[in-house]
Design goal:
Strand content: 15-25%
Number of helices: 9
Number of strands: 13
Strand order of the largest sheet: 1-2-3-11-8-13-6-5-4
Largest sheet: 9 strands, antiparallel
Structural class: alpha+beta
Shape: elongated
Radius of gyration: 50 Å
Distance between the termini: 148 Å
Length: 423
């Protein structure tokens, strides 16, 4: 009998054959063929040989037999350890390899597409097709090399080896601005007078540009006198009440307060202390004002300087003096955009009854100082202030009707004597 198969016969099949042996051989060949089909499908070598043809049962060489025995682990025909174990092991290894190939062949999912950046917002145009001015264009950031020097704290001054006093530090900070008459203060910045129970005290909030707080600038009675002017009167010297405004050519500022322009003669305490503190004549003072901010009202970022086109009346404003007429625990603070406190926070002064804030919108030569950009924070409770500006030259009052410096000279001299100031 001549048969063609895909594997050589096992060496034990070379013996004489009987019917029983033939039957066993038949089932063995079926098993072998079945295993070989599986091995072929999985590219495995269950029998350990390549496809060959054989004639008869005795054509396999001893060399091949030894090779088969080695691969089958030394077992013969009917041994328990041979082909099945090898097939199972090879199949599991192949499945693992197959699984690895499949996992490596699967490409990772593509990353999600990056969001498309929004298109730049087109500038808003006015009816003439020109860009509308914004806060950023009206109030551009200061140049990086701008000098901004916070004030030093008392503890920092003690740590230095210098013997600079508080008053000397304030004097040095204001040397390029409108001068203060320091003869009224001791080395700690405290007013020397003994005429009043509460004395003024200077405190430097920021060195360059200089910003000062003045504690006890007004007494409680003086605050009350100012507040009484913020009501309608029936006298000929009625104050002018208007919705507060600012210079529109300088700012897109939002101001929602109410201002009463007062006659000079109505605020002798404010005039006396301002002229003596800053050592300026009465004629350089703008009309005194009382301002009310109701809940929710504010004065957004603005400069106090005057536009160049309006400098004919007294020249530039060289000092701003604000006096707080009531105390606010929160809201309503005066905040400077570019200035920092000694602790590194944005410089702000919270309203305290009787305290004053002094800063300088321009140098003493009239050059505007853009570092003093500031705002009146939104008021949570009603906020009341008195304010006055000092010009570099003689100022001609405009409102209210009939207002003049001359009409206040008499009451001012009287107030000087009352406060212990020399006239």
């Amino acid at each position: 009998m001549r048969m063609i198969t895909t594997h050589r016969l096992h060496p034990m099949l070379h013996s004489n054959w009987s019917s029983k042996t033939t039957t066993l051989l038949f089932f063995f060949l079926l098993t072998c063929l079945s295993k070989c089909q599986y091995c072929k499908a999985t590219s495995n070598s269950w029998c350990g040989t390549t496809t060959t043809a054989f004639a008869g049962f005795g054509s396999s060489s001893k060399k091949v037999s030894k090779k088969k025995e080695k691969k089958s682990g030394g077992g013969g025909f009917g041994s328990s350890g041979g082909g099945a174990t090898s097939s199972s092991s090879s199949s599991s290894k192949k499945k693992k390899r197959k699984g690895n190939l499949l996992s490596s062949d699967i490409a990772p999912p593509p990353p999600p597409p990056s969001p498309t950046p929004p298109a730049p917002e087109e500038p808003k145009l006015d009816r003439f097709g020109l860009p509308i001015a914004t806060e950023d264009t009206i109030f551009p950031p200061l140049p990086p090399d701008t000098e901004l020097i916070p004030a030093t704290t008392s503890s920092q001054m003690k740590e230095t080896t210098t013997t600079t006093t508080i008053l000397e530090e304030i004097r040095d900070a204001t040397k390029d601005h409108l001068g203060i008459d320091y003869s009224y203060f001791d080395e700690f910045g405290v007013e020397k007078t003994t005429e009043r129970e509460t004395r003024m005290k200077l405190k430097l909030l920021h060195k360059s540009p200089p910003v000062l707080a003045i504690e006890n600038f007004f007494t409680p009675n003086e605050c009350t006198e100012c507040l009484s002017l913020a009501t309608p009167t029936t006298t000929l010297n009625q104050n002018l009440k208007i919705n507060s405004a600012t210079f529109s050519t300088l700012a897109q500022s939002k101001r929602t307060s109410t201002t009463w322009f007062c006659h000079y003669s109505q605020l002798p305490s404010l005039l006396a202390k301002t002229t003596k503190l800053l050592s300026v004549p009465l004629e350089q003072l703008e009309e005194p004002q009382v301002v009310r901010y109701k809940t929710g009202q504010q004065f957004s970022w603005h400069y106090d300087e005057i536009p160049a086109s309006q400098l004919e009346n007294g020249g530039q404003r060289v000092a701003t003096l604000l006096v707080y007429l009531n105390t606010l625990d929160q809201g309503g603070a005066t905040i400077f955009r570019d200035l920092k406190s000694p602790s590194g926070e944005q410089l702000a002064m919270q309203p305290k009854k009787g305290s004053a804030l002094l800063f300088f919108p321009a140098f003493k030569d009239g050059t505007p100082d853009d570092r003093t950009l500031h705002k009146g924070e939104v008021a949570i409770d009603e906020k009341m202030i008195a304010q006055i500006w000092i010009h570099e030259g003689k100022y001609q009052p405009v409102v209210p009707e009939g207002n003049s410096h001359e009409e206040a000279l008499g009451v001012l001299e009287e107030k000087y004597r009352e406060m212990g100031y020399s006239s």
